[in-house]
Amino acid sequence: MILGLLMLTSLFAGIDFTELEETVVIEDAGARAGADPSVLAITSPKETVCDNTGCRNDLKVGQETKFTAYIQNAGDASVDELSYTVTVYNTDSTGVIGSIAKDTTGNDLQWVNLDAICDDGSVCDFDSSQTPHPFTANSYLGNGKYTLKYAGQDIVWTPTIGEYIVDITVDSPTDADIANNGQQVAVIVTDWYDIKVDLEWDDGSTSVTGAGDKAYTLTVTADGSSNFAPRDVSVRLGLDGIVAAATGGPNNDDITANSGITMLTAGTEQTVVTFQNESDVNDTTSDLRHVLDFQTPWTYTGVITPDGTQNTSRFELTATVIDYVLYGPYADCVESFTVDENITTWQHSCEVTENGDDRPATDSAEITGAVENYHDIRISRMGVYQGYNSDGTGQASNFIEDSAGADLNVGFSRVYAELEHRGSDINVGYDWNISYTISLGTTVMSTGMVNDCLQGTEVPYQYEPLGGPGQTIATVCVEASLEPGEYTFEFELIMENKAYTIDATGAYDMRLSNNDRTMVSNVVNNLPLITSFELVNQGDLIVGQEDMLQFAVSAFDVDDPSGEGLNFEYNIIGGSIAGCGGTQALGGTVCSTPILPDYVTDFPVTVVVTDNHGGEVSEEMMLEIWNDAIGFNSTASGIEVSYPLQYMAKSNFTLDTSDGDLSSYQDVELEGFSGSYNAVGVVDYAPSTTFNSGEILSQSLAVTVAKSLEATNLWYIDSSGKWILLDDVAEDSTEDASKSVFNYAIPANSGVIPAGMMVLMGGELVGGDIPTAAISGFTAEAQKGGAIEWTWTMLANEPLRTGDAVRLIITNGTAEVYNNPNMPAEDRSMKLSETTHGVTYFATIAVCNEQGCSTPGVANATADKRVDGGVSATGLT
Questions:
Q1: Triad 94, 95, 100: Cα angle to 5°
Q2: What are phi and psi of 837, to 5 degrees?
Q3: Distance CA 765, CA 759 (A)
Q4: Sign of CA dihedral 204, 208, 213, 216
Q5: What phi and psi values does residue 694 have, to the nearest 5 degrees?
Q6: Mapping DSSP to helix (H, G, I), strand (E, B) and coil, where does residue 477 land?
Q7: Does this chain's domain 193-372 share its CATH topology with 635-767?
Q8: Could you give the CA distance from residue 713 to residue 726 in angstroms, rounded to a whole number?
Q9: Mind listing the pLDDT tens digit for each residue in 385-403?
Q10: Is the dihedral of CA 279, 283, 287, 290 positive or negative?
C-alpha cells in the first residue's frame, strides 16, 4: 500500500497541473504511415475561461508572454524537415478570427520559423543529421513542452488590452496528415492595477547590522497599465524586536507605541466626490480623502535606534496594505426599484473598499536589523620614536615599530603605543589605562601607568575615553634614555572605571589577547660622525708667528642631533693641546693655540669626538710647522753677518764668522769688469747646518760694515773658487748711521749658502767686455696644434761669466709675445704654444750683459694648426 502511494506521488510530481487545467481532447488514431508532426496542445499562453464569477487565465497588459506547446511526431518515421508559425489574431466576444494583431510599433504579431529542423545544425534549431535523431516517430519536439523560437531566440509577446486568438501551426514536406498540424487558444488581455509597497534602509539594503541610528524609508505607489488613483490606502506598519527608540513621520511619532503597530493612510488629502447619482448629475456627495495619485510615490521616513545596552538586539519592521477605496460605477453602486411591475436600474458612482490588487506580491515589504554588542579595546600599534636632542627637545627623526626587528639607537627616546576602540558601538566610551615596564636585560629600568602623550609627536594627545565622547584612537608615550644592551618594553592596556565626570563606562573587555604588547630590541650606540676637520689659518705656519694656530671641527651624532652631548679633544704627540677641547656648548669645536717650537716639522693633530655613551671617533690632520731663526755673527773687525732663515728642522741655525786675510785679495781682476780691485774686508763664513731648497721656506743674507771701510760691493767665493757678485749697492743701516748694509736676495729653490769667503771690495766697478759666449745652431720648427719650438746650442766659453745671461725675444711681426732676459743657462730649447694660425713668429737669441750682446741667432716659423708638425725654418747664426 505504501509503495503504491509513493509511485503515485512520483508520477504526479512530474506533471504541471496548470498546463492541464483546460481539457485538451487528443484523438488517438494510431501511428500514421510516414512522418506526421502535429500540435497536441498549447500550454502558454493558457486559454482564458470566463463565467459569471469572472475570468481565469487572462493576461495582463505588458505581461511578457512566451509561446510553448507540445509538438508530437504522430507518424512512424522521423521528421527531417520542420517549420512552424505563431500568429496572434484579433477577435471579440463571438470568438471569430479577425485580422492579424499588431504590436505597438505596427508590426504583425506573426513569427514564421522556417529553420526548426533541417540537416544543417549551423542553420536550424535541430539537426536531423545527428544521432540520435531529434524528432523520431512518436516523440515530442524538445522532449516535451517546447518553447517556440524565432531566429534562435524565444518568441516573446508583450500584449496590449484586447481579445485574441493564438494560433500555432507546424509544417513539413513529408507530413502524412496535415489535419492535426495546428491548435488555437482564446486569450483575453486586461489592464492591471497594483499598490506597491517598498520598505528599505536608507543605505539601500533590506537588512542592517551594527550599532547606531538606522534610517528607513517607506514608499507606497499606485501603479498599473492605466490610470489608477486609490483612496485612503491603509498601511499597517509593524515594529517587532528590541530597540532603544523608533520614530517616523514629520512629527517623529513613536512607532514603538501600541505594541509597535502604527496605522498609516497613504496619499495626499484632497476633497473628492464620493457619490454621484446617475439620474441626476447634480446629486453628488463630496468629502476629504487621502488620494494616492497614479505613479506618484508617497513616502514615510523614520529612524530606529538599536539598543546598545543589550548583548544582542534584533528587530523587524513590516509594512502591509490592509485595504483601499476605489470610486466609480461599480456593482455595489447599482440601485434597482419596481414601479407598476416595471424594473428601473440606475448605475450610480460610489466608493467601494477593496483589500487586494492584481499583484499581491508587492502589497507588503519588510526590513530587518540586528546588532551584536561587542566590548573591546586593543593596542593596535607599538614602537619607539628616536632622533631627539639629548635633552629630549626637538622632533623625532625616525620611528621603529615592534614588528620591524630593527636595532634601536642609544639616547633619549619615547616608547609609543596607539590604542583603538574595537567595540561594536563607537558611541560606547571606555575608560582605560596603560601599565608599562621597561627593562634592560633582567633589570627593570622603569615601570608605571601612563594615559597620554603630550610631547614629542606630531599630534599631542591628552586622555579621553576611547569612543563615546572621546576619539576612537588614543596614544601614549613613555620617555626613556637608552643605553647599549637588550631592552624589553611591555605595555598592558586595562579597561577600567576611572574617576572622571565624562560619559564613559567600565566594561567587561571581551578580548584580552589584544591588550598586551611586548617589544624586544637591541640598543646600539651609533658612533659620532666627524663631518669636517679644518685648519682655519691661511698660508704657511711658522714658529712664533703672530696669528694663533686654529682648528675647527664639525660632528654629527644620529643619537643626539643637537650635538650637545659630544665632547672634543685635540691630541698631539705626548699629550693634548692645552686650553682646547670640551663640549660643544663650551666651545670645544674650535681650538686656538700659539705655535710652539716643539711643533716644528711634521705636526700631527688628532681630534677625538666622544659621545655620552663612550662612543669615540677620531680624525688626524698632518701639519708642516716651519722653524724661524736668524743666524748672526760678527768678526773681530766688526763685520756683521745676518742670515734670516725659515726652515724645516728643529735644530738651531747659527753662523761661524771670522776675519779673512786681506792680502790674498789685492789687485784682483773681477770677471765682467775692467781693471783690478782691492779687498777692504774679508769674512770667512760657515753656517752651522746646510739645508737644500725643499727644506727652506725663505732665506736672505745681510752684511753690515762700517762706512769707514769704503766698501762698494760684496762678493762670495764658493768652494770651486768662483766669484759671485752678491750686491754692488750698499744701503745705509737703519740702526746705525755709521754703517752700510749689503743685502743679497737669495734666489728661490736655492739651498743655504754653503761655507765660503765673503769679500768686500773697494772702488767703483767699471764695466768690462761683451760676453765671449755665443749661441749656435738656432732653429725654429712648426709643430702639431700650431705650436713652434726653437732649439739651440752654445759655443765655447762656458760656463757664462758673472753678469752674462741668455736673452730670448719672440715677436709676431708687429709686437713682442715673449721676452726673457735671463733664460736658464742650461736650457737648449723653448716651445711657444699660444699662437695664431697662419702667423709667422720671429725669434732672436743672444748672450748679453750690461756691455752688450754676443752675435745673435735669428729663426722664424709659421704657426699651422691644421698640420701634424714637422715644418721647420733654418736658423740664421
A1: 125
A2: -60, 130
A3: 14
A4: positive
A5: -70, -15
A6: strand
A7: yes
A8: 8
A9: 999 988 899 999 899 999 8
A10: positive
Nearest alpha carbon to residue 189 among 226, 162, 157 = 162
Task: Name the burial class of residue 239, with classes exposed (0-12), middle (13-18) and buried (19+) by CB atoms within 10 angstroms of its CB.
Answer: buried
Half-sphere exposure of residue 679, counting CA atoms within 13 Å on the CB side? 21
CA-wise closest residue to 791 among 859, 709, 697, 862: 859
CATH architecture for the domain at 775-873: Sandwich (2.60)
Residue stretches of the chain with pLDDT short of 70: 1-32, 308-311, 497-508, 768, 795-798, 867-877
Please tell me whether the peptide bond between 821 and the residue prior to it is cis, using omega within 30 degrees of 0. Answer: no
Q: How far is CA 83 from CA 86, 136, 169, 360, in A?
A: 10, 16, 9, 40
CA distance 835 to 842: 12
Q: Cα torsion at 598, 600, 604, 605 (round to 10°)? A: 60
Q: Is the dihedral of CA 687, 688, 692, 697 positive or negative?
A: negative
pLDDT at 512: 87
Four-way CATH pick for 377-524: 3.30.465.10, 3.20.20.80, 2.60.40.10, 3.40.1350.10:
2.60.40.10
Q: Which CATH number fits domain 529-626: 3.30.70.940, 3.40.50.620, 2.60.40.1930, 1.20.1600.10?
A: 2.60.40.1930
- Largest Cα separation within the chain, whole Å, is 197
Residues 6+ apart with CB under 8 A from 4: none
Residue 111 vs residues 125, 156, 764: alpha-carbon distances, Å = 15, 10, 147
- The Cα–Cα gap between 439 and 518 comes to 11
pLDDT number for residue 310: 59
Output the CA torsion sign for 152, 153, 154, 160: negative
The x, y and z cell numbers of residue 828, run together, are 737648449
Confidence (pTM): 0.47
Q: What gap in Å lies between CA 772 and CA 872, rounded to an integer?
A: 29
3-state secondary structure of 126: strand
Cα gap 415→520, rounded to integer Å = 12
Residues 775 and 752: their CA atoms lie apart, in Å, by 32
Cβ proximity of 290 and 267 under 8 Å:
yes
Cell of 738: 755709521
pLDDT in tens, 233-265: 999 999 999 898 999 999 999 999 999 999 999
Cα(673)–Cα(723) distance, integer angstroms: 12
Alpha helices in 81-148 (DSSP H): none
User: What does the pLDDT read at residue 308?
Assistant: 66
DSSP state of 12: H
Q: Report the pLDDT value the prediction gives residue 111, as an integer from 0 to 100.
A: 98
Determine contact, residues 456/398, Cβ cutoff 8 Å. no
DSSP assignment of 136-180 equals -TT-EEEEEEEE-EETTEE-EE---SEEEEEEEEEE-TT-S-GGG
First-last CA distance in the chain: 153
Boundaries of every domain in the chain: 19-190, 193-372, 377-524, 529-626, 635-767, 775-873
CATH class of the region 19-190: mainly beta
**Cβ–Cβ < 8 Å for 484, 410:** yes
- Residue 320 confidence (pLDDT): 96
Comparing C-alpha atoms, which of 104, 41, 37 is closest to residue 72? Answer: 37
The C-alpha cell that represents 268 in the structure block: 495626499
- Please state which architecture CATH assigns to domain 635-767: Sandwich (2.60)
- Please state, in angstroms and as integers, the Cα–Cα distance from residue 66 to each residue in 121, 150, 154, 166, 447, following that order: 24, 11, 7, 11, 81
Quickly name the fold that domain 193-372 has. Answer: Immunoglobulin-like (2.60.40)
Helix (H) or strand (E) holding 4: helix 2-13
Q: Which residue has the cell 617589544?
A: 519
d(CA 136, CA 161): 40
Pairing of strands 616-634, 541-542: parallel
